[in-house]
Amino acid sequence: MLRSLLxxxxxxxxxxxxxxxxxxxAKEATATQSQKSAQVLSTSKGLSEVSSLxxxxxxxxxxxxxxxxxxELTENLDQVTSVSQLSDVQPTDWAFQALQSLVERYGCIxxxxxxxxxxxSFMTRYEFxxxxxxxxxxxxxxxxxxxxxDPEDLIxxxxxxxxxxxxxxxxxxxxxxxxxxxxxxxxxxxxxxTKLGGEVIFSINDSFGEEVDFDDDNDGDDPTQTQFxxxxxxxxxxxxxxxxxxxxRLQARSTVPFDDGVTGTDMTRLGFDGDSGxxxxxxxxxxxxxxxxxxxVFLAANSFEARxxxxxxxxxxxxxxxxxxxxxxxxxxxxxxxxxxxxxxxAKFDAFQFDVGYLANVANSPERKEGLFNGxxxxxxxxxxxxxxxxxxxxxxxxxxxxxxxVNLTGxxxxxxxxxxxxxxxxxxxxxxxGQFLVGLGPVDLSGWFGFTWARAESDGDGFEEDDxxxxxxxxxxxxxxxxxxxxxxxxxxxGVPPQATRIERSSSTLIGEEDDDTSLHIExxxxxxxxxxxxxxxxxxxxxxxxxxxxxxxxxxxxxxxxFKF
Length: 567
What we know:
Helices cover 22% and strands 34% of the residues. It is an alpha+beta fold. It has two domains: 2-188, no CATH class; 194-566, Porin, CATH 2.40.160.10. The protein starts with a helix and ends with a strand.
């Protein structure tokens, strides 16, 4: 029946097909604008750092109705007044006369924004019905204006209305349903500008082994009991333009660290530990905005870290879904100037990314040896390059300074001598360099890093003099197997040497700041099982041989069962 109807009038052929072009071009332009307007880059510590909304459907889930209604097409769809305006329609085309008649008599057509018609495009019956309906509206307007319509065309139009009545009714039903859902979203939306995301960790943890002995008074007992603890994070991600991001993170946690005050060494710390008591704290507060298409600027007011925006070149960095140990997550030199305030600049150019930043630990304090420039700070640069889909490499540099009382060269990993080689009371500066790599080997990823720190004493004290020097190294290799046993799963094995003070110059004989004569080995294994899209269970353990790089200390084991909820 449809074929016979289309033979009735060449004008009808043009009407239907041109109407479809009008409808399709509008949809294409709208989809294009939606994709451009919905790009929202986010970062995270432990949360699946946020995200690029690439489709109109995803866009509708993350922006308000008011924002959607404010979007405009990037290119106007001007009314076609002559068929010659369509660059791909030629007089020799079989439907040329029909298209020409439709444009000149009824004015019921607009081409694609690039000036083409695309007459060979396929369409569904729904699309056909929508196109016919668009032209019917134009014809009704003409009739209302008193203009004459060919009687044969009117008869054909009535037949088309009958033929596609069901499809038009279905379209109206869909529109009514969408309007109802939009009204419900408007009435119940959390915010027109803010998206809420969260992560909660429940964990059962314990360590096994004798407490690390510094003064020969160790009684040989295991210093820890089995621990049940939590960490809860709420991210409020706000965007004002669709391309910027204001992140406010609230955090509460009860995971008392297995640190030097408990086990005698920071080498036994978990990657998600920390204890805020009964307080809920602001853990992250920063604003990111773009400068051009390739550069993002970060202004950080609280608890910002280099790893919040640089490329660490490791698949195990997440505290909620990656390695279970603190050392196993990333190169420890990236933890200098941990949790500070300042500025970061991120530049991406295809496979190359370059990041620079400056962070101060107590920038809000006007006290002596504190503030934005006179307290503990770090200035760093990071570069990474994806050689291909399977190989990625990176280099990192940081200059760090700490006044006496706050020295920590390794982000509370490794030995105490590596953290503060001249003692905690001596002002210390350092320069650190590191190299990272990630290689895809089919179903297995091989990654690793190496870090080296040159430290200098900047004041006298504890038997040290200004300009005394120390060297600290660390390195690790990791094998990870994504999707092992099911989509979303991850298995990992990490072997490395935690930060070790290999050389410390002393101006006088003293025990404080002695170099590490022996070598500890960190061995870790874990398996993340993705129970659902939002819940993962990760059993894991690691062992540290010769803790504090001292062969007189027995190996110490740490085991955990981490359950992560994300929403």
